[in-house]
Amino acid sequence: MQGLLVALSNPKAIVFTTALFPQFIDITEPLLPQFLILVATFMTGSFSCLLAYSVLAQRLKVRSKSILSGQVSYWLLIDEEWPE
Q1: Is the distance from CB of 69 to CB of 59 less than 8 angstroms?
Q2: Which residues of 53-66 are buried (b: 16+ CB within 10 A; e: fewer)?
Q3: Phi, psi at residue 79, to the nearest 5°?
Q4: pLDDT truncated to tens, each residue of the chain (84 aa)?
Q5: Rounded to two decimals, what is the model's pTM?
């Protein structure tokens, strides 16, 4: 509930929405269907970006763990200088 209140009262989101949406709304047509289409389009794009970020972060996490564990095991098994 707190997250919803923060999101709805975010002044940056309110300014962005009021600046962007009126350009794509035809006042001679019903407003609710137009607004719902714009919101759905915006939310789909936002969700897609957030999903891409999360997938990228997960892949980087797995890769960095495997790289770091490989370097540590190399250092523990072979009594030499750290490879560069």
Answers
A1: no
A2: eeeeeeeeeeeeee
A3: -85, 70
A4: 888 888 888 888 888 888 988 899 999 999 999 999 998 998 999 999 999 999 999 888 877 776 666 655 555 555 555 555
A5: 0.60
